[in-house]
């Protein structure tokens, strides 16, 4: 029995010993020495640290297990991605193969679901042409317009749907001008004359439902929903029951055009109740339900319309477009769900990668480096032998000796190689993550573009919510530039353009034309955009805040105020500049196109709110968002607020991008009349990056103001060498003017008159075409200063 117990204990100990992988740390060399392996996690800086030695085992096991999980997950992600179609591919395949899409011939978003649909009743049985009484109306004198409220007072009626909120608040309704309704009028009809005829018809018979309905159509064409509704209400009240569907169709169309489609549906249903066999009512109701996103009812309405009027192409095309859109929506919804799953897996995978790297760094941090190991063992091994060992591990070593033998190796351990590969894999994964998010965004954009398809609104909101849910930590990739600089690897060289020639411009050309220096003598605002450095600023105020360019930011809108700094860097923003910047100044309106380019068709005030949202959400580098805020305040005419933002940008901008805020500060200093300060600041910006055309252009302006035309010409040429079309050709015009001035001053005393705008005008240039043939007589345009160069006379 004792033997059996002893055997059990022995086997247990033996099993434990076999399980101790740390024994693999030690090896026996050919000469019988016992020493640690070269590439071992147990080769420590402090080999006497037992606790660290024991922790290495746990780190290694955790890394191995985590790596196996990552390999499995990565393979699953690759399979998912390989089997996914892109949103563009899905759409293209559907529109090229699906029968409904082929019959529709166009996308639903390209069909006008607000198309004007009315009828004047002239084709209905019992309505005669003489009932309109549009003949014999005087055409001379002042043209009248139909005033239904004045001609036929009507405060309330049970027939006019007064319970609808849109009807109660009809004074506040707005709609577009429905020019499409003109096609329902007789060919060649003059709209003003048409209104005049209706007004006279109502004077003859103020209860004529035909004229009241025509008056409603007239006001719809004019885009006046209030007067149109007033006429429509009276037409409903006065129309016989068998014709009441006609003014109901008109009134429902008014509410639909005013974007009250739900209430329009109620009125159109009433119209169908009165006349279920009239196809136009079914067509209009189908459009309303399509806008509301109720595709099933919409298709039913189009089917009813086609049964009554089989040749109604508008109903047929819209029906097939809706069926196509439904299929596309189903495909994209399914694709979106798969992308969401893939995004979740990618997030988890990236988290595992980060965890792996953290564990690997902790484990490697306590390891002895290869170089220290080589140094410690150099006396033990012959150099050739050590070189042989390292060579067998695929490592490159060089040996040189000046007395002492020194071995220099480019060492990469197995774990380091794995870490490098993993870093590369993280880059690939981030790129894949970006591709997946891009596909999800395309689906989101498609749904937003189909903003009339309310049935899919949940998908849009879900996608937008996803963008916001990722939180600030997901935007770290946008803290630096995501693209190449605009002038990447650009070298300024002298080209073959006309202005590079030694005798350009000819003196005769200078005398023949009046070359204005308006652009160079006035203040021209300059803003160096972060986009030039590779920052995708358009994304910062659209996709990254979950509000695409096609959407409108929710109200209220607030300006992007920057917190006033505790102190300003007086090297760049001295007290004199702050004093000169207080209060409202003229706006730098010529810079507004930069902000407008970030968000298509958005107001400047809305873009300001977007910048504020992006700043609060921390979607990008703070200094870049501060630059956008400073641009907003410069356009708003508040340079002090702009300087607050520029100081914040200065506090965090990397040195290699410091020229971006410096150019703006120099431009504001120029505006304040602090020319010397502006020149010092912009020269520092030029030292940071001498390629940027904005910087060279501003230096050229300032040097000209200092009287250094030679330097100004040089920097203007540098500007054009980088961007030949600077300021849409104004850069070349300014260069020609300066060159002419220099030539004329150096060659002969010609009385040349130059005009330039008053200080503070924000770059609105004079019409060059109008001045092309201007004679050489002394004159000054209104609001300009006259500068006579030969006599050095200025009129202020």
UniProtKB/TrEMBL annotation:
Signal peptide (UniProt feature, chain positions): 1-22
Cellular-component GO terms for this entry: actin cytoskeleton; cytoplasm
Intervals holding TPR repeats: 279-312
SMART domains: TPR
Biological process (GO), any one: actin filament polymerization
Keywords assigned by UniProt, alphabetized: Signal, TPR repeat
Coiled coil spans: none
Recorded superkingdom: Eukaryota
PANTHER family: TETRATRICOPEPTIDE REPEAT PROTEIN 17 (PTHR16091:SF1), TTC17 PROTEIN (PTHR16091)
Protein's UniProt name: Tetratricopeptide repeat protein 17 isoform X1
Organism annotation: Cephus cinctus (Wheat stem sawfly)
Gene from which the chain derives: LOC107271738
């Amino acid at each position: 029995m004792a033997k059996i117990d002893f055997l059990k204990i022995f086997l247990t100990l033996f099993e434990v010993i076999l399980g101790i992988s740390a024994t693999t740390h030690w090896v026996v060399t050919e000469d019988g020495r016992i020493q640690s392996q070269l590439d071992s996690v147990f080769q420590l800086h402090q080999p006497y640290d037992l606790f660290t030695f024991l922790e290495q085992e746990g780190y290694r096991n955790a890394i191995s297990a985590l790596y196996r999980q990552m390999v499995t997950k990565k393979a699953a992600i690759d399979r998912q991605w390989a089997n996914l179609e892109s949103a563009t591919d899905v759409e293209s395949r559907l529109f090229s193969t699906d029968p409904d899409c082929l019959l529709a011939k166009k996308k639903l978003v390209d069909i006008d679901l607000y198309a004007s649909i009315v009828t004047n009743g002239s084709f209905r049985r019992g309505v005669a042409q003489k009932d309109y009484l549009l003949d014999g109306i005087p055409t001379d004198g002042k043209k009248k317009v139909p005033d239904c409220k004045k001609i036929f007072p009507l405060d309330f009626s049970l027939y006019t749907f007064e319970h609808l909120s849109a009807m109660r608040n009809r004074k506040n309704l707005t709609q577009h001008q429905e020019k499409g309704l003109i096609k329902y009028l007789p060919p060649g009809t003059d709209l003003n004359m048409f209104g005049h005829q209706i007004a006279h018809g109502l004077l003859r018979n103020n209860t004529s439902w035909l004229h009241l309905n025509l008056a409603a159509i007239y006001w719809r064409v004019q885009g006046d929903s209030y007067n149109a509704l007033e006429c429509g209400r009276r037409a409903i009240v006065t129309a016989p029951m068998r014709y009441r569907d006609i003014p109901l169709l008109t009134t429902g169309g008014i509410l639909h055009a005013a974007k009250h489609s739900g209430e329009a549906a109620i009125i159109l249903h009433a119209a169908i109740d009165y006349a279920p066999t009239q196809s136009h009512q079914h067509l209009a109701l189908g459009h309303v339900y399509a806008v509301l996103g109720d595709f099933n009812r919409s298709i039913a309405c189009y089917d009813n319309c086609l049964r009554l009027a089989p040749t109604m192409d508008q109903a047929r095309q819209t029906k097939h477009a809706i069926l196509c859109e439904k299929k596309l929506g189903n495909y994209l919804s399914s694709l979106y769900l798969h992308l969401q799953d893939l995004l979740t897996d990618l997030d988890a995978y990236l988290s595992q990668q980060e965890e792996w790297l953290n564990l690997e760094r902790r484990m490697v941090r306590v390891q002895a480096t290869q170089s220290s190991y080589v140094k410690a063992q150099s006396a033990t091994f012959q150099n050739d032998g050590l070189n042989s060992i390292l060579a067998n591990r695929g490592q490159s070593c060089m040996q040189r000796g000046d007395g002492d033998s020194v071995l220099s190796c480019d060492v990469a351990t197995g774990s380091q190689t794995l870490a490098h590969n993993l870093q590369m894999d993280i880059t690939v994964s981030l790129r894949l993550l970006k591709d997946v998010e891009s596909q999800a965004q395309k689906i989101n954009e498609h749904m937003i573009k189909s903003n009339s398809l309310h049935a899919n609104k949940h998908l849009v909101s879900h996608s937008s919510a996803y963008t916001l849910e990722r939180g600030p930590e997901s935007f770290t990739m946008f803290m630096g530039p995501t693209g190449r600089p605009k002038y990447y690897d650009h070298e300024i060289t002298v080209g073959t353009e006309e202005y590079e020639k030694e005798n350009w411009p000819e003196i005769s050309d200078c005398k023949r034309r009046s070359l204005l220096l308006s652009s160079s003598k006035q203040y021209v605002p300059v803003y160096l955009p972060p986009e030039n450095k590779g920052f995708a600023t358009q994304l910062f105020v659209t996709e990254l805040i979950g509000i695409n360019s096609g959407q409108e930011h929710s109200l209220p809108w607030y300006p992007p105020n920057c917190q006033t700094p505790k102190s300003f860097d007086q090297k760049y923003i001295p007290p004199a500049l702050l004093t000169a910047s207080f209060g409202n100044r003229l706006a730098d309106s010529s810079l507004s196109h930069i902000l407008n380019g970030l968000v298509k068709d958005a107001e400047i005030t809305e873009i300001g709110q977007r910048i504020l949202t992006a700043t609060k959400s921390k979607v990008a580098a703070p200094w870049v968002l501060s630059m956008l805020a400073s641009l907003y305040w410069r356009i708003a005419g508040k340079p002090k607020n702009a300087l607050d933002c520029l100081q914040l940008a200065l506090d965090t901008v990397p040195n290699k991008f410091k020229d971006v805020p410096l150019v703006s500060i120099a431009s504001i200093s120029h505006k304040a009349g602090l020319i010397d300060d502006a020149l010092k600041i912009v020269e520092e910006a030029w030292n940071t990056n001498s390629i940027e055309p904005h910087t060279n252009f501003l230096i050229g302006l300032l040097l000209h103001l200092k009287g250094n035309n030679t330097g100004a010409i040089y920097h203007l040429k540098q500007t054009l060498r980088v961007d030949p079309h600077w300021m849409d050709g104004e850069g070349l015009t300014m260069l020609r003017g300066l060159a002419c001035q220099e030539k004329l001053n150096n060659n002969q005393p010609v009385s040349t008159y130059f005009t330039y705008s008053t200080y503070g005008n924000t770059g609105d240039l004079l019409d060059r075409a109008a001045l092309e043939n201007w004679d050489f007589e002394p004159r000054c345009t209104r609001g300009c200063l006259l500068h006579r160069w030969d006599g050095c006379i200025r009129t202020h």
